[in-house]
Inverse folding.
C-alpha cells in the first residue's frame, strides 16, 4: 500500500512539474520579448516598430534606407526581415502573411504575385493610401495598373521594372565574325551567331544561354518560354473570354527553337550548368567576366551586379557586354518583343502596424529612395521624377537608355488566377525539351493536356 | 472482493495518469496535424489565389489527380529505386556486413570503424548534401581522383544522378542499421555458434540457420524504420539535385514538395503525403507478414 501511495505521489508530482515546465517556459519567453524591444531602444508601444520583409541580397541596402527613416522619425524602429532569394521567396512571404503572428508590415512583392495574393486576401487595398499620397501622380497609369488586383483595386506601389534583352559579349562576337553592334532581326540570326561563337569558343564555353530548368523556375517560364512565345504573336490568356489559350502552331515555334539551341545545333549550356542553382550568380561573377559565355537572354539589370560596392564589382563590364533587342520569330509584328516584370511594395492584410507600414511606404517609395534603388539595382525606374533625374540618366553601369527603348515592345505575364500553378508547367515543358526527354511535338501535346488538367478543360481554348 | 476491485480501479487510473503526458503530446503534435492532413487533402486549398481564402471540398479529385499525373510512373519508379538501392540493399546490407565483420574484433578496431561510420549518421543532412555535391561536382573530388588515372571528367550529378543520391544516402544512413545489428548480434551467445561449429556447420550455414533467425525481430524493426525514413527522405535529395535533372531524382516526397510549395497546391500536396503514408503502411505490413510467415515454418 505504502509503495503505491508513493507511486501515486510521484506521478502527481510529475504532472505538476510538467505543467510547471509549461508555465516556466512561457515566462522567460515573455521576458525575452520585452528585453528585445528594450534592446532596440523603443520604450513605448509596439506601434513604433515597423517590420519590413526584403530579399536577402537587398538587406544591407535597405538597412541604410531604414536608418535614414529612423533618423527622420525619432522613436520609430524598422526591423528588417530577411527573405531567402529565388522562388522560395514567394512561398515564404505568402506563408508569413497568413498569420498575424508572423506577418510583416511592409513587403516587396513581385508584380506577378499581386493578383493571386490579392485574391487570397493577403493584401491590404491601397486605393485610399494612393488618394492621400501627394506622390501618386509620379507613376504612369500603365505601371500602376500592373500592380492592381483582378478587382481593379490598387494593391501594390511599384518601385522597379525591367525588360528582357539579348546580352552579348562584343569582343567574342567580333572574333567570331559577327558584326557589332549586333541586332538580330529574327530567331535564325541568333542561332547563326551562336554557331559562329561555338567555333571560336574553347572547352566549357557556352555560346548561348537560355534558362531551361526547374532549378530556375520563374526565370525559365518568363525569360525563355514567355519571352519567345510573346514573339510568335501567340497569347497565353484571352482576357475577353477569360480562357487560357493553347496555340500549338506558335508553341511549336518556341519548342523548336529550344530544341535547336540545346539538341540540334548544341549551342546551349551543358545540363550541369543549366540545372545549377543561382546560375545567374555564376554568370555575373565568372562566366561573363572571363569570356566563357557568348550570349544570354536575361534582364536589363545585369550591370547592377557590377556596380561600385557590389559583390561582383566590375567597372569595365559594359566595355565587354552590350544589349540587343530580342527579335520576334521572323521579324514580323512589331519586330521585337520583350517580357517586362516589376516589383512593388505592398502591405499585408495581417500586418500589425499598418499605419507604420504606410508611413515607411511613403518614405521608401519616395523619390530619393527610388533613385537610390535604381542606381543600386540597375533596374528601370518607375517614377517620372526619377526617370528624368540627371544622376539616373548619366549612371555609368547601366543600360537604362537601351532598356527604356524596349518598353514599347513589352508584354506582361498573365498573372491571373491559375498563373502561379501554370508557370511551373511552362518551365517543366521547356526543361523536358532541353534535357532531350521530349520532342517539340511531345512537348506541345503535354502543354495541352497539362493545361487542361490544371485549370480545367472548360477554361481552355485550343487553336 | 471489494478490495480487488478497488485495486483494479486504482490501477487503471494510475495507468491513465502515467500515459496522459505522452497521449497529450502525441495528440497535439502528431494526431492533430494528421487529421488536418486528411481533411485538407479533400479540399482545393492553395497557398495563394482565391482558394487560399475560401477552399472548397473537392472529394477525391486530388487523389484522382495523382493517378492521372503523367509523371507518376517515373516518380514511383524513382522512389522504389531509391528505396531498394539506398535503403534496403545499401543501408541494411552494408550495416549488417559491417556489424558482423566487427564481431569479435578488438575494441580499438570496433571503436575506429564504429566512429567512422557513425560520423555519417550524425552529419546534418544539408551538410552531407553539400559534401556529396562537391564530391560529385564537375570540378569535384571524384573527377580529380579519376583524373589521376587519366580518365576524362564526368558530370556525375547529371549523368548518374540517381546513383549519386543513392550513394550519399547509403553513406549517411548505414550507421543506424549497423548499430541495431551490432546490438542484436552481441546478444547471440558464443556458445550457440560454438555448438553449431562443433556440429559441423560452415560459415554460411551458421549465418542462415543461427544468426539470421536469431536477429529476425531486429531485422523486421530496422527494415520498417529504414523503409519509412527512406520514403520520407527529402533534404538530402533536394539539396543535392532538387529532384532533377528533369525529374530523374524526383521521389514522392520531392514531388509532394513541388506540388505544395512550388505550384502552391497545398491540398494536392497533402493528398500525395497520404499516398506516401499508404505505401509506407503497406510495405511495413508486408515485412511483418514475411517475418511471421517464416516463424510458422
Amino acid at each position: 500500500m505504502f509503495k503505491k501511495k508513493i507511486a501515486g505521489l510521484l506521478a502527481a508530482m510529475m504532472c505538476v512539474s510538467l505543467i510547471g515546465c509549461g508555465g516556466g517556459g512561457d515566462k522567460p519567453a515573455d521576458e525575452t520579448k520585452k528585453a528585445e524591444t528594450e534592446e532596440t531602444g523603443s520604450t513605448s508601444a509596439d506601434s513604433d516598430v515597423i517590420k519590413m520583409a526584403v530579399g536577402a541580397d537587398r538587406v544591407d541596402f535597405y538597412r541604410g534606407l531604414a536608418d535614414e527613416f529612423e533618423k527622420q522619425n525619432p522613436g520609430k524602429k524598422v526591423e528588417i526581415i530577411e527573405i531567402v532569394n529565388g522562388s522560395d521567396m514567394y512561398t515564404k512571404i505568402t506563408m508569413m502573411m497568413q498569420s498575424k503572428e508572423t506577418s510583416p508590415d511592409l513587403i516587396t512583392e513581385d508584380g506577378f504575385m499581386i493578383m493571386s495574393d490579392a485574391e487570397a486576401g493577403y493584401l491590404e487595398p491601397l486605393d485610399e493610401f494612393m488618394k492621400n499620397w501627394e506622390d501618386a501622380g509620379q507613376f504612369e497609369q500603365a505601371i500602376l495598373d500592373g500592380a492592381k488586383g483582378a478587382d481593379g483595386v490598387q494593391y501594390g506601389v511599384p518601385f522597379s521594372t525591367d525588360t528582357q534583352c539579348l546580352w552579348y559579349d562584343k569582343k567574342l562576337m567580333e572574333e567570331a565574325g559577327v558584326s557589332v553592334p549586333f541586332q538580330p532581326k529574327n530567331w535564325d540570326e541568333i542561332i547563326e551567331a551562336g554557331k559562329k561563337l561555338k567555333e571560336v569558343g574553347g572547352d566549357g564555353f557556352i555560346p548561348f544561354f537560355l534558362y531551361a530548368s526547374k532549378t530556375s523556375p520563374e526565370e525559365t517560364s518568363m525569360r525563355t518560354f514567355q519571352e519567345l512565345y510573346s514573339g510568335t504573336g501567340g497569347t497565353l490568356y484571352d482576357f475577353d473570354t477569360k480562357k487560357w489559350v493553347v496555340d500549338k502552331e506558335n508553341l511549336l515555334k518556341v519548342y523548336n527553337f529550344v530544341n535547336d539551341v540545346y539538341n540540334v545545333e548544341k549551342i546551349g549550356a551543358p545540363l550541369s550548368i543549366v540545372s545549377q542553382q543561382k546560375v545567374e550568380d555564376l554568370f555575373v561573377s565568372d562566366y561573363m567576366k572571363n569570356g566563357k559565355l557568348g550570349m544570354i537572354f536575361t534582364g536589363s539589370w545585369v550591370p547592377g551586379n557590377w556596380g561600385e560596392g557590389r559583390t561582383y564589382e566590375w567597372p569595365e563590364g559594359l566595355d565587354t557586354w552590350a544589349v540587343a533587342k530580342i527579335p520576334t520569330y521572323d521579324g514580323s509584328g512589331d519586330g521585337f518583343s520583350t517580357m517586362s516584370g516589376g516589383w512593388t511594395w505592398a502591405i499585408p492584410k495581417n500586418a500589425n502596424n499598418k499605419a507604420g507600414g504606410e508611413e515607411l511606404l511613403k518614405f521608401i517609395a519616395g523619390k530619393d529612395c527610388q533613385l537610390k534603388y535604381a542606381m543600386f539595382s540597375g533596374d528601370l525606374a518607375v517614377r517620372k521624377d526619377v526617370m528624368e533625374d540627371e544622376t539616373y540618366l548619366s549612371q555609368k553601369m547601366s543600360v537604362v537608355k537601351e532598356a527604356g527603348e524596349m518598353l514599347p515592345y513589352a508584354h506582361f505575364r498573365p498573372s491571373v488566377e491559375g498563373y502561379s500553378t501554370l508557370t511551373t508547367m511552362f518551365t517543366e515543358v521547356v526543361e523536358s525539351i532541353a534535357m532531350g526527354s521530349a520532342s517539340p511535338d511531345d512537348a506541345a501535346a503535354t502543354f495541352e493536356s497539362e493545361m487542361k488538367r490544371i485549370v480545367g478543360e472548360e477554361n481552355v481554348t485550343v487553336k | 472482493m471489494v478490495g480487488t476491485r478497488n485495486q483494479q480501479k486504482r490501477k487503471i487510473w494510475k495507468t491513465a495518469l502515467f500515459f496522459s503526458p505522452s497521449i497529450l503530446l502525441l495528440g497535439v503534435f502528431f494526431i492533430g496535424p494528421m487529421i488536418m492532413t486528411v481533411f485538407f487533402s479533400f479540399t482545393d486549398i492553395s497557398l495563394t489565389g482565391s482558394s487560399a481564402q475560401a477552399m472548397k471540398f473537392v472529394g477525391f479529385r486530388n487523389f484522382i489527380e495523382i493517378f492521372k499525373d503523367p509523371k507518376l510512373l517515373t516518380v514511383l519508379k524513382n522512389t522504389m529505386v531509391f528505396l531498394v538501392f539506398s535503403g534496403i540493399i545499401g543501408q541494411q546490407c552494408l550495416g549488417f556486413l559491417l556489424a558482423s565483420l566487427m564481431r569479435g574484433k578488438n575494441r580499438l578496431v570496433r571503436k575506429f570503424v564504429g566512429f567512422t561510420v557513425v560520423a555519417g549518421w550524425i552529419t546534418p543532412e544539408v551538410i552531407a548534401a553539400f559534401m556529396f555535391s562537391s564530391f560529385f561536382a564537375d570540378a569535384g573530388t571524384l573527377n580529380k581522383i579519376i583524373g589521376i588515372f587519366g580518365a576524362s571528367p564526368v558530370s556525375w550529378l547529371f549523368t548518374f544522378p540517381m546513383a549519386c543520391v543513392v550513394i550519399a544516402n547509403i553513406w549517411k544512413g548505414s550507421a543506424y542499421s549497423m548499430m541495431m545489428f551490432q546490438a542484436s548480434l552481441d546478444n547471440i551467445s558464443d556458445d550457440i555458434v560454438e555448438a553449431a561449429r562443433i556440429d559441423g556447420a560452415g560459415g554460411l550455414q551458421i549465418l542462415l540457420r543461427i544468426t539470421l533467425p536469431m536477429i529476425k525481430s531486429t531485422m523486421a524493426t530496422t527494415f520498417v524504420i529504414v523503409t519509412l525514413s527512406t520514403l520520407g527522405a527529402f533534404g538530402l535529395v533536394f539539396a543535392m539535385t532538387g529532384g532533377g535533372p528533369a525529374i530523374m531524382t524526383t521521389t514522392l516526397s520531392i514531388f509532394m514538395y513541388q506540388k505544395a510549395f512550388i505550384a502552391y497546391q497545398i491540398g494536392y500536396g497533402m493528398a500525395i503525403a497520404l499516398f506516401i503514408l499508404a505505401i509506407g503502411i503497406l510495405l511495413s505490413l508486408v515485412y511483418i507478414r514475411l517475418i511471421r510467415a517464416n516463424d510458422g515454418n
